[in-house]
Amino acid sequence: MTDTVAGRVAALRNDPATSGLRRSLDVYYGDPERDARMDAFYARFVTRGDLVFDIGSHVGDHIGSFRRLGARVVAVEPQPLCLRALRAIYAGDDRVTLVEAACGAAAGSVRFHVNSANPTVSTASSDFVRAAEGAGGWEGQVWDAEIEVPVVTVDALVEEYGVPAFAKIDVEGFEDAVLAGLSRPLPAVSFEFTTIARDIALRCLDRLAALGFDRFDVALGDDKSMTFQRWVPADEMADHLLALPHEANSGDVYCVSR
Question: For 143-191, how does the pLDDT look when each residue is reduced to its tens digit (9 = 90+)?
Fold first, then answer.
């Protein structure tokens, strides 16, 4: 993390207008060892000069990793507070393009459920909000506001910016809708899953298999370490996700196409 980014993050931490992001800024910035692990992990998918889509950027720590690897980043984020932080952190970086929207199955707009106390889990999925109600580990999470946000498809992003070498999708239970807006295989994709909404992950696997993705692995939580250390087929990945204990909570499935 450069001194410039560190200074901008510090300013955001001390700005009352972005106090709702302080926890996220503390977790995702200022840990050089975490940054190094992220960079080493994503280097298998991203090389200098590549284009990357970061769909669901939140406060942009993944943007930072992709930029350190030398990639050009199209960052898609609908939350005004997060966009304020992203503009501040990556001000002046012409290799980062911010798209102020959610990704979905079709262009238009969607009602977005905001969790003011924990914006990390804000979501465009009302099903996800319902799944969290009463679920272990999700106690105290409240989606206390709704906003209308524009929707863009991955296909539209590809048409405007080009084919990405890698697309990271982390949108809290709206991943299947994002993939419904993609009609072609990409070299590599990741999507987040949660154990409270495994049906969404299964729909994502079905969609990706239909698009031609045929090799999968998974990393649990924020641990940038693959579980299988080899590529497995979609049905084996589905069985694995269904067998995970509830306490596993979340992770990211990584997918590549031939």
Answer: 999 999 999 999 999 999 999 999 999 999 999 999 999 999 999 999 9
Which is nearest to 11 in space by CA: 20, 22, 24? 22
Distance between CA atoms of 252 and 258, rounded to whole angstroms? 20
Q: Tell me what percent of the chain is helix, strand and coil, each rounded to the nearest 5.
A: 40, 25, 35
- Between 3 and 207, the more confident residue is 207
Q: Among candidates 24, 20, 98, which has minimal Cα distance to 61?
A: 24
Among candidate residues 11, 96, 34, 19, the one with its CA nearest the CA of residue 3: 11
Residue pLDDT, tens place only, 106-147: 999 999 999 999 999 999 999 999 999 999 999 999 999 999
pLDDT reading at 1 higher than 90: no
Give tens-digit pLDDT for 89-112: 998 899 999 999 999 999 999 999
Q: State CA 156 to chain mean position distance.
A: 18
Burial profile 210-240: b = 16 or more Cβ within 10 angstroms, e = fewer: ebebbbbbbbeeeebebbeeeebebeebbeb
Diameter over CA atoms, the chain: 48
- The H or E element that residue 145 is part of is strand 145-152
Helices 80-89 and 61-68, axial angle in degrees (round to 10)? 30
Structural contact between residues 87 and 26, judged by C-beta atoms closer than 8 angstroms: no
Contact criterion met (CB below 8 Å) for 114 and 146: yes
Q: Give the tokens for residue 70.
A: 């030398």
